[in-house]
Structures are given as C-alpha cells and as structure tokens.
Amino acid sequence: MTTVELGMPAEGPIADAIARSLETQGEKRAELKAKDLKTDQEVRWCPGCGDYVILNAVQSFLPSLGIAREDMVIVSGIGCSSRFPYYMNTYGMHSIHGRAPAIATGLAASRPDLSVWVVTGDGDALSIGGNHLIHTLRRNVNLKILLFNNRIYGLTKGQYSPTSEVGKVTKSTPMGSLDHPFNPVSLALGADATFVGRAMDSDRKGLTEVLRQAAEHQGTALVEIYQNCNIFNDGAFDLLKDPTTGVQWSIPLVHGKPLVFGPDGASCVVRDEFGGLRIAETDQVDADDIVVHDATREDPSYAFALSRLSSQDLRYTPMGVFRSVPKPTYDKMMADQVEEARTSSPADLGALLAGGDTWTVPA
Amino acid sequence: MTTTDQSVVASTTGSPVPFVKSVVELDRVVIRLAGDSGDGMQLTGNRFTSETASFGNDLSTLPNFPAEIRAPTGTLPGVSSFQLHFADHDIMTPGDAPDVLVAMNPAALKANLSDLPGGGLLIVDADEFTPRNLAKVGYATNPLEDDSLQGWQLVNVPLTTLTLEALADSGLGKKEAERSKNMFTLGLLSWMYHRPTEGTVRFLERQFRRKPQIAAANIAAFRAGYNYGETTEAFAVSYEIKPAPMAPGRYRNISGNQALALGIVAAGQRSGLPVFLGAYPITPASDILHELSRHKSFGVRTFQAEDEIAGIASAIGASFGGALGVTTTSGPGVSLKSEALGLAVMTELPLVVVDVQRGGPSTGLPTKTEQSDLLQAMFGRNGEAPLPVVAPRSPADCFDAALEAARIALTYRTPVMLLSDGYLANGAEPWQIPDTEELPDLRVEFASEPNATTADGTPEFQPYLRDPETLARPWAIPGTSGMQHRIGGLEKADKTGNISYDPANHDLMTRLRQAKVDGIAASIGPTDVDDPDGDASVAVIGWGSTYGPIGAACRRIRRSGRSVAQIHLRHLNPFPADLGEVLRRYDRVICPEMNLGQLSMLLRAKYLVDVQSHTQVRGLPFRAAELAAVVQDVIDSTSGAPLAADPNGGAE
Ligand SMILES: Cc1ncc(C[n+]2csc(CCOP(=O)(O)OP(=O)(O)O)c2C)c(N)n1
Ligand code: SF4
Ligand SMILES: [Mg+2]
C-alpha cells in the first residue's frame, strides 16, 4: 500500500521529540480511515460548495498513501479554499494570502520526512501569490499544490479572479471584466513544472487518480481542481459536468492512449502544421495521425499545446495528467549539499570562529 | 599630526639606505584611502586593516563606497574610500577626520580634501592628474602645480609609473600591470607604518591561486612599494604605533556582517537546531547570506528566495518544522515582510529577522548607514503586533547580539528583530574569539506529549497553553505523534488555538501577546550605565552603532573634568525594567540618533522624561568631536559653570 517514501528527520532535537512522542503514543499508525483525518472543527463552507466534495475525496484518498497523519502537513493561503487545513487532522498552517508555496518550501526543504501539501485558490495562487507559485514550480521542491479554481474570489464575496473569463460581470466589474485570464495549467507548464494535472471536484474517481499520481511524483505537483462556487459563480463548470456536453467538450488524458473523445469518440487530437495540436474529426483522419498521450515527455511543449486546446468557455478541456517527468528535487539536492559539506569538513564551531588570521595577546 | 606625545625615538632603520630616516612614535593615526571604484580601495583598506589587526593595534574602520558598481571612471560619484583608525590604546570610532589622505586621482582628492585638517599628510598619485582627469571633476588648473594645496603636507608620488616600472618584467600588459598600483600603495603604507607584510603576501597567493602570474605581479608591486618607501627621499619619516594593551586571549579582525553570520551559526550549534535562512539579496545585508551559505557543514540551509516575502515565509515554514528560522534584509525588505511578520507574531513561532539598516526612505542611500527603521521594527505591522527588538553596538558585538536574538526567539517563541546598520555591517574591529563552551546554552525542548485533557478526560494537545513564567506556547513540530494541530493568522482561542471571533478572547489574546513580549524584560538585566565618576547629572543615551561615537565623545567630556553618564541600550523592546527610573536620575538626558528622533520619541512616550533629541542623517556615523560639543554645551548650561575646553583635543 505504501506508495510514497518519506525521508528521515534530522538527528538531534527533532528526531528526539518524534521518538519521545512515539514512546507515549505507541507506534506510528499508517493504516488510516477517512474518519481519522477529520477534526472536531465545524466545516464552514456554504452548503453545496464544491470544497466539501474535494475535502471528502482527499480524506478518502490520503489513507491509501500509507503515511501517518502526524507526518502530513497542509499549508494554505487565504480564501474559502484555504480553510481546508482546519478540517484535516494533520499538522497544518492557514497562512497569509498567496504565500503558502513559500512557507511550504521552507518546511519541505528542511524536513524530508514530511508529506507537505499546499491548498490554494485561483486568487491566492495566481494573483497575489503568482510569483511564489512559478518559482516553487521551477525549483521542484517536493510538495503537492492543490489549486481550487472556482474562477472567482469567493471569500471576498465575488469579484472576478485571474481565471475568470473576459467580460465577467461581478461586483467590481459591472460592465464586464477586461483582463485576459490565465490558464493555470499553461502557466505551470511555462514555469517548467514537472507534474501538472487537472480534475473536477465532482468526479471522485478522476480526482483521486490525479491525486494519486501527484502524491507519487517526486517534486512539485500542481493539480488544478475545478471547484464550483455555488454562491458567486454557480455552474461555472456545468459545460464539463453535464453528462451530454461533458462528453463532448472534455478530453480525458490517459497516458499511452490515443486522444479520442466526444460522443462515440467522434473527435480526436492531431498535430497541426506548426508542431502544435488541433482538434479533428476522428473519421476524417488517419488513425495513425491521432496523438497518443505521453505525459512523460521531457519537452513541456507538447503538454503546453494540450493545455492550449481549451478556450475560455471551457470547450475542449483536457482533464487528467498533462505532464509527469522525473527531475531531481530541490530539497534532496539541498540535503545532498549539506551532506557533502559535512563529509568534507566536519562542523567545528571553535575552528570556524577562529577562522582567518588570528593573533594572541599573552597573559 | 594630531597626537599628544610625538617623540623621535630612533634615527635609523639599520638597513643600508642611502640617507638617514627617522622613526616617530604616534599613539594613533587615521588614514583614509580614496580612489576610483575600480582602484581596489576597499581591498587595499581591508588588507591594511588585517595587517594592523595582526600587529595588535586596536582599530576601527569605515568603508564608504558608492551604490553603483562602477560609476564612470574618474568622476566624483565613482569615488570609493576606506578610513582606518588604529591606535596603541582602546578606541571606539573610525575617527572623525583623517590625519593622512591617499588620493589615487583628482576625483578622490576633490571629494575628500575638505575632510583633511590643515597640515595633514596628503599622498597623491601624480600620474593620474592628467588634463583629462582634471577636467572630469572641474579642476581648471592642476592642484598639484598651483598653490592650492599649500596648507597640507603634499607628497607627489608617481604611483602608476612606479608600479609599471616594478612590473616591467612581469609579462603583463600595461592595463593589467596598472591594476596593481593599489598593492604598490599598500606596500608604501606598510613601510610607513611598520606593518607586518607576510599576511598580505599569503593573502595574495591565496586570492590568485589560479592566476599565478597575477599573484606574482601583485606581490612584486607590494614589495616595490615597500622598498620605495625605504629608499625614496620623498618620505623621511616612518611611524610606529605600539600594539594596544588588550585582554589576554586570541583575536581576529571581524566585520559586523561576518560576526552576525557567525552568531547565527553559533546559535544553531548551541540550540542543536538546524538553521534555515530565507533571504533575498539586498545591500548592505547580502554578505550575511553569502557567509551563511558557506557553512552548510553546520547544518545551515540557505535559500535564496524569489523575493523578501518568500524569504521570511520560507523561514516561518522551517520554524514550524523545528528549525531556527532566520531572514536577513534591509529596510525595504522589512517593508515587504511586514505581513508575514504579523503571521509569525500570531503563530508564535521563533524567528530571527535581521534588518541591516541603510539610508531611507524607499531605495534611499543603499550603501550608507542610518538608524531610521526603529519605529518600523516596533510598529510596522497591522494590528497590535509586538515583537522584541535587539541591536548590536559594534561590529564584533553583532555576534553576541545574534545569539541574544536567537535566545529570545527560542525561549519566548516569537519573531525577534535584530537591527544592525550599514556602518556596523561593513566596519571592522578586533574580536576576542570566545570559548564556544561559554556561549549561551540555547537548547529547547519540543513538546512531545499532550498537555491537557478534554471534558471527557481524553488527553489532548493545546498549542496555545502557555508556560506560566515566559508565556511562551509549546513548540510541537510535525512528525510528533498525537500532537497534530493547526495554526494560522486568524485569531486563536486561548489555550486550544482554535479559530475564535469571541470579543473577550481577542482582548485577552492581544494582551497576552503584549505581556509575553513585555515579560522578556525579566531576562535581560538592568540598564547598562557607564558613569565612572558616579556623579553625572547629564546622561547620553543611545542604541546600536552610535555606541562608538557617543563613547568617544563621553571620554573627551570626562577628560575635560566634567562628568557624564553613557547609557546604551541593547534591548529596544522591551526596554530594561529599570530604564525609567534610571533616566529620572539625571537632570538632562540627551539622545543622539542617526534618524529624526525615533528612540527619543519612544522614551518620552513611555517614561514622560524630557529627553533631548540630537539627530543627524548624513549616511555616515556621528563625529565624536561634534557630539562632545553638543553634550558639553548641555552639561555647561546645566551646571552653570563652564570648564576649560578639552585639553587633549582629538584624542580618544
Ligand atoms: C493581503 C491580503 N489582501 C487581500 C485579502 C482579501 N482576500 C481574502 S481571500 C481573497 C481572494 C480569494 O480568492 P481565491 O484565492 O480564489 O479563494 P476562494 O475564496 O475563491 O477559494 C482576497 C482578495 C487578504 N486576506 N489579504
Ligand atoms: S463563497 Fe463560494 S467558494 Fe466560498 S464557501 Fe461559499 S460556495 Fe464555497
Ligand atoms: Mg477562487
């Protein structure tokens, strides 16, 4: 069952405290049930909010990793979605707006023995925290980022967000929003993210599968989760959720499978003449020309081209894992440097303080 | 020269020189080296400092350089200088004014001449006084040739020509060979002041390990400068400054940034915790990042973040995980960190925040010094967000101040602001290397078992159940079994740490956070007052890097027969518990600061004492003589009986 390997805590007070706690609490317990991850805190999202289903999916999924709950940490920013840690019986920090990836970086880089998760929203991750997000992705620190994209600012009561479609009428944009939205997947791939996936809140199976692959990935994983805000942006993803239009407009990504979708597999993805991708009708193209999904391609431009197939109104939205490539993680390389330095010159504080030219004044 | 007991002690050096040279003994000298940014004046100054330190003089330095890496050559904005004060006795400042000015070009002369008192020794590189270079800085005629420099002892040395001659066989091109003229100058000064030379030779060999030709050329230029001094008729006198009596022990020369970085490494070692530094480069704090990045073998992780916010945020994350989190920056960076500082206050995690202050506001004067971030450190956050503030008083003291900041952070589980400044950061002085066993013991105990029980009797962990004495909350780190908890920026319920919007609880928690910081006073000892005569009615109070100039000013005052007390604060929040009482003992209290009166505002507000503020924001440390004059005026107007002026003039 254990699919995720964690490192060892640093020797010294940290390892000692963990050992002491095990003396009184007994062995680490890795066989968890969903209910073991629930807290006594009353969940305060609006009834019907997509955040509930994501919470349930995560609580059901995490036990499959075989990690004790004290070894999991969830760090969030600010927003409705960022209340997530309060409802998880793990360690957690509900921090400040946009900064969760940076906080998680410091934690993950100094504690290889922990499984670190970030929960963030579209405003939190892409507006105020955009800088931290792209830098975390390029560094490939071992942490998993769950980006709850409801295409709106929920907590501040409904202003448009950096993922809202152009022309969105909200309290702050009575005549329609002017700015062009980010596609979070494209952005992440542009930052050379080693793992990028997308899932739907209501699709327990699809979401769990993407989460599983993200958890197994060594390095930063960005999972965009489409999340319905039934108060300020209700139905934002109905096109993809509705059984009929959903089949028509979503492109399921399955590694090693041809990109065929739509009712009766009527549509498919082929290469266009500029090296990008385009949608075609399956019966109009050679079967050999249909692109077979390969999430492990080193060059991110294929995954990027996939992410560009969709439009602002969500037609042709690929769902699943876009990219998953191995790359050394920042925290591991940092630990290796510390180790290397230790072996080449053991720590001697007295010698360090007396470094450089010294002289002695006799008694 | 401004010395008291000049005496000719010997008339020959004993070597076969063509004419007899004399040796004059001095008790102290202030030398200023000035040149173009590209002339290597900082390196030359640092080398001369190292030679002086290893000779055993007491010393203090003042590097002064432009913000531009290479302003246009030969222009006034491109002038970089290095001032060194060294003596046969204990000194406190880099000196108000130089006794000797070395000017490598017309710009350096023009920018610095007004600081050289009449009669001072002026050494210039005559080769650089070309019509073109003179025109660049607006000299209509060559000052070396007209009589405008008559008031000083001018020595024209063709430094460039002499260096090129010395390196004729080095195989280097003219441009490259010319670069060694700073080492020629260093050689000449080393001869003039009887400095040991082996250290510099070793340094050059080490520095240019991979470029043996350059190493050899620099060493040759250095030696040629020394020999030139010995043989030329231009310099008839050399000077001897005896080693200063210092407490027995082992010493090294150290800059403030270096000392601060070593203090952080020591704090990691003495607490047993890994150190995590999250930082974004900024002058004048970057050297701390550079230094700490070299000490990975001590378990120090340095993270060059994407910005100042990520710097502090990553440090908070690491602290949550049980590391000693540190972030280093200057004023503009503190502005960016404010919101995260509030988070650290709210989550009550240990964190050391280093602000190496520079001239402000905004980008201000990046390479110059100032003390204008005190109120920002105290209050620069939303809400009631108190945090302890600690300040070092001298370059070497940055080591102890860093340990003290770490002690407070770890004991009280709070972010601590450590306020250094540009002068401390780059200035250097001898440091008695401490015995590591005698450094404070900073060990912490992480919480590892439940500290409370629920209503039904089950054991539970309450992350905000405080230590009754320190009011610190328990530090339970991820990975410890049974202690899972959530913290964050929302208001916490007392004890349980759950989210709480309860009015009474917020009032209580706000007061508890304040009480915790106030309570630190119990651990810091009484106010540090220096009043050797014991009868002073006037006190001078300061904080941070003004310690040296205030101390030197007080010495002058006392030598004139007056009494004055010097009070210097290491802790600015909280103040020592007895401070109000101490201040009320004096008829007058003067507070000199390199800002517009920030400490005096705090003192007046807190103690209702009529503190008299004396301020200056020139980007440079106070001059001791000026401060002494201010203090003397206050003393005389208080006592009503003016005494004679200081008989010893500029001596410290
Ligand atoms: C520094 C700062 N600026 C602004 C806010 C106000 N604020 C809170 S949440 C939020 C937007 C949240 O949007 P999103 O990240 O999409 O989260 P959602 O509520 O939609 O889940 C804003 C602007 C804040 N808390 N802090
Ligand atoms: S405002 Fe929207 S996102 Fe926030 S809790 Fe309510 S439904 Fe969910
Ligand atoms: Mg949102």
Average predicted confidence as pLDDT of chain A: 96
Shape of chain B: globular
The most extensive contact between chains is:
A-B, 76 and 80 residues
Number of strands of chain A: 12
| Order of the strands making up the biggest sheet of chain B | 12-11-13-14-16-15-24
* CATH top level label of the largest domain in chain A: Alpha Beta
Description:
The complex is a heterodimer of chains A (363) and B (652). With 363 residues, chain A is of the alpha/beta class. Chain A has two domains: 13-241 and 325-354, 3-Layer(aba) Sandwich (Rossmann fold); 254-320, no CATH class. Chain A has twelve helices and twelve strands. Chain A has helices at residues 13-25, 50-61, 100-110, 122-128, 130-139, 184-190, 204-216, 238-241, 243-249, 301-307, 330-344, 349-353, and strands at 72-76, 91-94, 115-121, 144-149, 195-200, 221-226, 250-253, 260-261, 267-271, 277-281, 317-324, 358-361. Chain A is globular. The model of chain A has no long low-confidence stretch (mean pLDDT 96). Chain B is an alpha/beta fold and 652 residues long. Chain B folds into three domains: 22-240, Pyruvate-ferredoxin Oxidoreductase, domain 3; 252-432, Thiamin diphosphate (ThDP)-binding fold, Pyr/PP domains (Rossmann fold, 3-Layer(aba) Sandwich); 529-639, Rossmann fold. Helices cover 35% and strands 20% of the residues of chain B. In chain B, the strands form six sheets. In chain B, strands 12-11-13-14-16-15-24 form a seven-stranded mixed sheet, sandwiched between helices. In chain B, strands 4-5-3-6-7-8 form a six-stranded mixed sheet, with helices on both faces. Residues 1-17 of chain B have low confidence and may be disordered. At the A-B interface, helix 1, strand 1, strand 2, helix 3 and helix 5 of A face helix 1, strand 10, helix 9, helix 11 and helix 12 of B. Strand 2 (91-94) of chain A pairs parallel with strand 20 (486-488) of chain B. The complex binds thiamine diphosphate, iron/sulfur cluster and magnesium ion. Chain B: Residues 536-601 form the Pyruvate:ferredoxin oxidoreductase core domain. Chain B: InterPro entries: 2-oxoacid/accept_OxRdtase_asu, PFOR_II, Pyruvate:ferred/Flavod_OxRd, Pyrv/ketoisovalerate_OxRed_cat, Pyrv_Fd/Flavodoxin_OxRdtase_N, Pyrv_flavodox_OxRed_cen, THDP-binding, Transketo_C/PFOR_II. Chain B: One of its GO terms (biological process) is response to oxidative stress. Chain B: One of its GO terms (molecular function) is magnesium ion binding.
